[in-house]
Amino acid sequence: MKLFILRHKILFSILSIPVLLIGLLVGYEFSGQPIGWLAAQLDQLRGVHRIKIIGMADVTDEHYAKSLDDNYGVKADRLAYCTPSIWEFAFHKGYNAVAVPAIKKQFGEDVFAQCHELAILTKLKEPDLDEEVRKMLESNLQSLRERNKKQ
């Protein structure tokens, strides 16, 4: 009988380690959004205004971030480029769910649209800009202005 119990304890120990590791991995993957939400709440309490950006860098990103910072004191932090992990995406989603409405409430609804438009206009002023990029930016600017008129 003691041998039977001992064997089952060893079996339980051997099986519980992978189950525990899988549980920790799943917990880690899904902890991004609440951690992002909490980080944004703490930043709001400290009076720090930030947004989190993920995805491939755009030609206007540098000007957009500078415009947000110069005009409103909002920092734009890039978390990941082309392929964010599940955790990075969830963190970004949780953080911006708090930060974006707070920024809009403090500075006005069109803060991000204004800075995006300013970034495009700044980029269009560059003399050595490729013609295809120029056409794309002009199209984006037109779409942005039409979207702003509808709102």
Task: Put the structure in a nutshell.
The protein is mainly alpha-helical and 151 residues long. It is 74% helix and 9% strand. The protein has helices at residues 2-29, 32-46, 61-72, 86-107, 111-124, 131-150; strands at 49-54, 74-80.
Strand order of the largest sheet: 1-2
* Cα distance spanning the termini: 76 Å
Structural class: mainly alpha
Number of domains: 2
The biggest sheet, with number of strands, parallel, antiparallel or mixed sense and barrel status, is: 2 strands, parallel
Secondary-structure element pattern, one letter each: HHEHEHHH
Number of discrete helical segments: 6
Output the radius of gyration. 23 Å
How confident overall, as mean pLDDT? Answer: 84
Q: Please give the share of residues in helix.
A: over 70%
Principal-axis shape equals elongated
What is the strand tally?
2
Low-pLDDT windows of residues: none
In terms of DSSP E residues, the strand content is 5-15%
Account of the 3D structure:
The chain folds into two domains: 1-30; 31-150, no CATH class. Strands 1-2 form a two-stranded parallel ribbon. Helix 2 runs parallel beside helix 4 (86-107) and helix 5 runs antiparallel to helix 6 (131-150). It contains six helices and two strands. It is mainly alpha-helical and 151 residues long. The termini are far apart. Helix 3 links the parallel strand 1 and strand 2 (74-80). The longest helix is centred in the first third of the chain and has 28 residues, at 2-29.
